[in-house]
User: Fold these one by one.
Assistant:
Number 1:
Amino acid sequence: MEACKRYGLVAVPGCSTPNEIWDAHLNGAQMVKVFPAPQWTPALLAALVEVGDFSKVDLLPSGGINNKNYQKWLDAGASLVGMGSNLCGKDIKCLPGI
C-alpha cells in the first residue's frame, strides 16, 4: 500500500476476515476487496458495517457476484462489487498464452 501511495495508485488489497479488512484500512487502503465473497453473505457484510468504524471502510466484495445478486451486496453496504468471470462469461475465449 505504501508503494501505491508513492506512485499515486489506488490500493485495494484482498482480505477474507474482519481482522484483515481492518488492518488493511488502518494501513491506508482506500478500498478493500472482500474475497472470496462466497465466504460471506450480504447479511454478514451488513452486520460488519454496523460494528465500530467498519462503516468507514469502502468494501468491494468479489467472487460469485452476478447480475442476480449484486444489488443485495450494494444494499448491504458494499461500495462497489467485482463481477469478473460473471461479467465476462465463459463464452469469451482467450488467445493462447494469455
Number 2:
Amino acid sequence: MFGVGVGVRVGGTAGGSIDAQAQAHYNRVIADGGVVPAGVSGVNGFFNAVKTIYATSDITTAISVGVDAHYLGYKLGAGSGATSGQAAQKLYSCAGSSGDVVQTTAASQPLLLAHNGASSDNYYYAPGVSGNYISTTSTYQTDDWDVEFNVKGKYSLSNGRIAGTRSTSDGTNVAIDGTGITFEYKIGVITYAASASTTNTNDVEYTVRVTRNSATGAVTFIKNGVTLTTSGSQIAGTLSSNSYAIEINGVLGGVQGFSGNINWVKFYISGSVVRYFNPATYNASTSQTQWTSTTGEVWTINTGTATTGYKGALVDRTITMFDGVDDFTQNATVLRGNVCSQYFAYKTENALPNGYAILDGASSNYSNAFTPESTNMKLYMDSSVSGLSKTLGTTLALFTATNNQGVLNTLQRNNDTQVSNAYTPALSGTGITIGKLAVASNYQKGNVNTYLSAKSADNATTRTAIYNYIRTINNNAF
C-alpha cells in the first residue's frame, strides 16, 4: 500500500512512442536513485501535455521549474521520528536538474506520502496526534466484536488505537503497537484488556483480525493468518448497553491514535461486513472531507486545529506535506522572471494569520510568493503585498498567478474570475523555496501537489488548458 516501487503505469502511452525529453527525465531520476510513481508513461503524458499547451518541442523553453512528486519523481532522504524513511530530500523538475528543489537537512525535509497510482492503493495517513481521525455517525456496538484491519506504521511511536466506539464511560477499541495487539473494553470505571504479545516491526504491513465471543468472553487475535496466544481480561457477557459512533485512528477525538498508514478496517456481524472503512472508495472529485462507504456509512476526515505538525490525510496520489515547523525544499538559482506564470496546487492546513509564504523566492522574502494568510491566498511581489487575494478554502485548489511586469498581474483560484492590477516594482531575488519564507525561519504548512513556473504571461486559453491538465492529474479534486 505504501512504498517506493517504481514503474507503475498510470498514464501516457502504452506501447507507443515516448517523448525523448520525457525518457531522458525518467532515466535521470532513476539513475539518481529517485522514484517516479507514475512511471515513464506518466512522465511522458506530463511532458506532452505541457509541450502541446505551450506549442513547443522543448520543455525548457516553456517551463523554468515544474515539480510534482507523483508524475516527475522524488528522492527519499533520512528523516527522523515519525518521518523516518519517508521524507522527501529532492523533488525533480521537468526543467532538468537546474529546476530541482532539494533539502539536505534531514530534520527539515517534508513528509513524503507515497502512492502507487491505483485507487486500491489509497490509504489514510495517521500522524498519531490527537484531533486527527476519521469518524462516522453510524454505530457499531456488538457483544460479539469482530474487526479486521490492514495497517503499516510506526508501531513503537504511539498507543496505536486503530478503531473504536466509546464515550467517557464505556466502549470498545482495538490497538496495535510495537509489542502486541490489544482489545480493550470499558464498562463504567472498569477497563478490561485482552492482548496478544507479538513483535510488530516499523514499516511492515500487517493484517489483523480481532474477535470476541460474548458467550465465553474468549478473544482471538489472528495476525497475517496466524492465531496468536491471548492473555489478559476475557469477560463473558454484555460489553455495553449503548451504541456509539465509530472512530478510525483512536477514540474520543483521535486520542492515542495510530502512527502510520491505515489501509482499511472491516467491521463484521455474524461473518458479514456491516461497516467498511475503505479509502479505495474515496473520490477527491466529489468530496475531500467525507465520502460514503460501499456499506452505506459516511466517513468524515477530522484534522483538528493545530497550526503546526503533520495532519491526517486521505492519500490518493503522491503528495508532500509540510508541517509548519521546519520543513522546506529550495533551489537557489532557478529564475522566475518579471514576466512569468505560476500554477500551484495546494491544500492548506490551518493557515497562520500573519501570512508566512508557502512558496517564495530563495534570496529575498516575499519575492513572487504565494502566501496563505488566515482565509485568503495572497500574492506578494518584491517584498510587498501586490493587493491580489483569493479565498484560500480548506480543500485542494489550483492558484494561478500571471506576472507581466508593469502591464498586468493576475491571481486566479480554480480558473475563476481573475483579480488583477498593474503593480510596477521589478521583482527581486532568485531561486524558489517551498514551505517557508525565503531567508527567514518562518514556516507554513499544508499539502503541495503540483507547481509549474512558465516563462511567459499566459493568455486565457493557455491558463484554462493548464488548469484542466493539472486538475486531471490531481484526480479532478478542484
Number 3:
Amino acid sequence: MMSQLRTWGHIPLILLVSGVSFAAAQEEQWLQYCSAPEVSLPGIDVGWRQLEVTSRAPTGVELPDFETQGQLFAKWPTPMVPAGYLWIAVDRSGDPGLYDQLYIDTDGDGHLDDETAVPNRLMTQYNVFFGPVKVVFQIEDGPVSYHLNLRFYSSGDRQSVYYSSGGWYEGPITVGGAKMACVLWDGNTNGAFDDTSLDSSESDRIQIKQNKNPVTLFVGRYLDVGGTLYQPEIARDGAYVKLSPAADVPRGRLRVGPGVTTVSAGGENGLFVLTPEDGICSLPAGTYRTYEWTVARKDDDGKNWRLVGRGASRADSFDVTEGEVTELAIGEPVVATLKANRGKGAYSFQQSLRGKDGEYIELTCNGSRPPAPRLRIKNKEGTYDRTYSFAYG
C-alpha cells in the first residue's frame, strides 16, 4: 500500500554544464511520500528498534478513558516535536486479555485524551502489530505526515514496544544530466530524514539507482555518485533533495591491507565505497568507521573466492587527515574457530570466522556458500580412522 500525501508533483532539476560548474545545482528536487504496513526496500535494512515500557502513567499527560486497568506506556524519540518525543500507550479491549489497542500522540500536543485507539492489524503468539500509524509534525512550511509501524511484544515478564518506519520518500531526480531513481529512508526511525552520524545505525539512508544498479549510501556532508562528489541538502522532512557539485574538498589517503579489493568507510561525511589501487584510496578528510571490506581472488581451478568483513568494533574509528596517509588494518588473515559441545551421546560443532577487529566474515565460492568442511578422527593406535562430513544448520 502506498499513499502520496503531498499534492505537488516532481520538480525536475536540469543540470546545465559549463566547464565544471552546474548552474541549476541548488534547485529542489521533490520526492513522493509512500507508506506501507510492511516495508521492503531492496538494498535498505528495514529493522525494528525497541522502546522500554513502564506501568507508571506519565505525569502531566491527559489520558483517554481506558477500557481496562494496567496500561503500559512508552516514549518514541523524535526531534520533529518540541518535547523531543511522543507518548505511546498500549491498552486491552478486555480484562484480562491481550494488549490489542494502542494510543499515540499523533498531533504532538503532549496528551493522549484527544486520540483514538489504533486497532491492531495482526496478532501472533507473542506479538501484536499496529500500523502504519500516521503522526503529523508541524514544521515551518506547515503540517507534514509521517508513518510508524509498531509492535507490542509480550512473553512472560518481558514486555516491550518495537517501532519501525512505515514511510519513505522516492522519485526520479537528475544528477549530472542523467535521470536516476532516488529513495530516502529514515534510518534511525526518528521522523527526520537528514540525520548524519559516525554511528551507522544513527544515520539516514539515500539510495541512488541508475539503470538497474542501486547504491545505498549514508546521508552525510558528501554524496559520491558515479565517481563525482556532490554536497547534498536533504529536507528535514524528506520532501526534497538538492545536489551541488563539491569543490575544493580536503582529502587524505587510506592504506589498507594486502589483497583488499574494496572497502567502505562511513561517518558524518557519508559512506564511501572505495576500490584501492596498490593498497591506496582517497576520500574526504574526516572521521570514519569501517563499514565493510572484501577480498576477492581466483584459485588455481578458476573458482572465485570472496571474503566479506562486516560489523567491526564501533569504538574503532579512524581519522583521515588532509594530505596524509592513514593505515587501516583490515583484510587477511582471518581467524577460524571451532567449538565442540558434547550432548547426550553426540557432539555438536560450531565454526566461525572473525576478522582482526572482530568482524563477522562471510566466505563464498562462485557466489555461494562453500561446502561444509569434513572432520577426520583417528585414534593413537590407528584402529579407528573415519572422516565425517559436516552439514550447516
Number 4:
Amino acid sequence: MTANALLDSQLESYELGHEMPLEFSTVRAAVRHNGQRTPFLLIDLELVRSKIRRFRAAMPEVRVHYAMKANPHPEILRVMLEEGVAFEVASAGELEVLLALGVPGPEIHYNNPIKPPGHLERAAREGVAWYAIDSVEELHKVVGAKADARLCLRIETQNLGSDWPLVGKFGVPLAEARELIHEARRIGADLAGVSFHVGSQCRNLDNWRIGIENAKLVFDMMRSHGLAPRLLNIGGGFPVLHTKPIPTIERIGASVRRALADLPGDMRVMAEPGRYLVSDAAWLVSRVIGTADRRGTRWVYLDAGVYHGLMETAEGLEYQIRSERDGAHIPCTVAGPTCDSVDVVARDRILPAGLRTGDTVYIPNAGAYSTVYATSFNGFPPPETVVLQHL
C-alpha cells in the first residue's frame, strides 16, 4: 500500500462527532444582541478553556506551550494564564506582550529557528532560556548573545497528510544533524533538546510517531558526543475540523503516548498547540456588500476577505460559510471587498441564490490565523474581536 493510500484508509476511520465548535444558534443570538459592525470575530473563551483541558487529558505527559502566533488577543492570553499554560514566541514583539502580562522570561521558549539579532538580544536580556536552532550559523548567533542558552535542535520530519507542509523552510535533515551536534560540543554549547513540526493541520497520525522516533535517534547522537539531552518538543500541527476528516486529539494523544513510552523518565516533553486551542471557539461574522453575475457565475462580495481575516484561503484552506437565508442554493464565487484580484475566498461554494447586499454570513472555526493576518489594505478595517457574553 502506498503512503497516500495508507493515509486515505486511515482517514476513513476517523470520527468527526467529537468536535464541539461554537454553535450557530449561539452565534446568531449574540449577533442580534450585540448589533456589532461587521466584520468581527466572535470568540467563546469557555470553549478555549475546554480545548486546553481536552488537550491535557489526551496527553497528560506533555507540557502545553501556547503558540502566540495563532491569536494573541489579551482575553485569550488571560485564559491561558488562568489555566497554567506556558508560551512559545517567534519574535520580540510577542515576547513583549507576555512580559507586560507578567510572564517571567525564563518560562518562555523562543522557538523561531531564525531570529533577528535585536530580537535575540532582547530575549537574552529578559532571561529567556530556551531557543530553537536548525543551522550552525544560528547556533553561533544564539550562543554569542547568551552563552548559557539552552538549545533545542529542530529536525526535519515527514509532513505527509498536512495541509501546509513545513519541510524545506525549517529543520535540519537527519543526515546533517551530526555536524551541528559536533559543532555544539566543540564550542561548549548546551544543546539539550530536539524539536520537530509535523506540518499545519496534520491529519496523519504517523507523522508524530515518526517525528518522535527520529528525535530518539538524534538524542543518541547527542549522547555519543557527550551532551545531555533533556527536552523533546513535539511542536504543533494538531488539526481542527473544517471540511476534511481529521483524527481526534484523543487518537493523536494515544499515538504520541505510545511513542513516548520508552523515553527516559527525566526527559521533559512539550508541545506548541495554537490552532487547536482557539480555532473552533470563534466565528468570523461578515456581511454581503454586493453581488454580480459574471459569465454564468454568481459572485458574492463580503466585507471580509483574504486581507481581512481569511488569508489562509489563499493557501487552500476551505472554511464553511453559513447564512440565514432560505431558498434554492447554487454554486457561487465568494470574494473580499478589495480591488485586488487575489482577494477571492472560495469558488463553487454552494450558497443561497437569494443572498443580497446587507445579508449576514457566518464563517465558523475562524479563531486562529484570521485576525492576526488581517490588514487595513485598501482602507477596509480589519475585524474587531468580540468576546461572547453568554446570555
